[in-house]
Model the fold of this input.
Amino acid sequence: MLYFLSMEPALAANRIAERKLRDRQARRAQIIGAARRIAELEGWSNVTVRRLSAEISYSQPVLYGHFGSREGILAAVAVEGFHELGLALEKAQKRDKRGNTVGSVAAAYLEFAASSPALYEVMFSLSLNVPFDDVATPPELRFAFSQLLELFQGQSPKSEVISELFWASLHGIAELTRAKRFPRGRQKERVKTLVELFTFHDKTPPIVKAR
Amino acid sequence: MLYFLSMEPALAANRIAERKLRDRQARRAQIIGAARRIAELEGWSNVTVRRLSAEISYSQPVLYGHFGSREGILAAVAVEGFHELGLALEKAQKRDKRGNTVGSVAAAYLEFAASSPALYEVMFSLSLNVPFDDVATPPELRFAFSQLLELFQGQSPKSEVISELFWASLHGIAELTRAKRFPRGRQKERVKTLVELFTFHDKTPPIVKAR
DNA sequence: TAGGAAACCTAGCAACGCTATATATGATGC
DNA sequence: GCATCATATATAGCGTTGCTAGGTTTCCTA
Done:
């Protein structure tokens, strides 16, 4: 039972360092979680550093030790959002059984944006972000977009442009819906028409790239 | 030369009231103009009430007398933006000589968004806005969207949905371009492909209803 | 020309993001 | 076990923000 006491000092130091790292990451997750919760319930303007510090029962400088600024916190939330969006799209693509991959991915995208409006908002409102094809771009962003890229892969020489347009359409629908710029209750029809636009029945083999 | 002095009192009061109204509107325009200029040059975070009051050489409460809050100022700028966007789209539609109305309107839309990024940003970032089909919706918003509606009028029973999707696509492209989420230098190809998607030829409609 | 309304400014509040500095906590060497 | 030192955390404050109560000036009217 005195095992740990007799342990090699270097190993003990390792365990301690690991524990500290875990604590740190746990607190980081706590901060991000609190930010998301408050944003979703009360809007991003209520996500203040003071409020967050009260929420996790630490002083403000602790938050600045984790993320360098308030924007850093929002950026971390945004990255988490892209990760989850990527997972949701991947899941939708894999689970599709009706041969309508484009449709189910589109539905999943809009469902994500609608069910977490504040999260979706912050994913695109941060203006000081790195370009998407930059080396510094977080892999979470690439991952999310790659799910859309795969949808049209090899369909045409312009498959990349098609993917970009598809993404833009989804993003536009999500944003205009969130901002209440669209008449209500036609969302299903909108998605259906969108899918038709992006589904190409040519002589040459079209859309479905099962994989 | 003593004409005005002997003028009917009621008329004199009228002239004075009119002049005051003119002054008021001129100052209102000054504020909006200053806000736009600063936003475009230094970003919206630098558009503070203090800064604006210094810019027009009036104290802060004067600004609050015109617009009730900082957000009120941004909203006024946004409305002005929608007005100008509507005009730009109308012009593009009327000037089109190549029979490619959809294309020239799309180009005009993206040109507008690209040349005034801060203006375009504020037009869609105000979350607390009235729904688009509400009675309280400023006519400028309706006007802008009506330009897009006309584009597809009568082309299909779903012309309204098509218009909404077209708008969403344009908005998505504008936003993703502004946020640098798109690879550079393919904008022309993007627009061309978009126009193809939204152009329905009488003989062979590219959209075949999928089941 | 007196009086009153309208226009305008001064000064200040509470809350914000952020940080220099002080204090407590906990691991390490003797 | 104790002293030491680094690391972790808190206190307190700076400058700036949006916004407003209250006093002052300006200008129209009678």
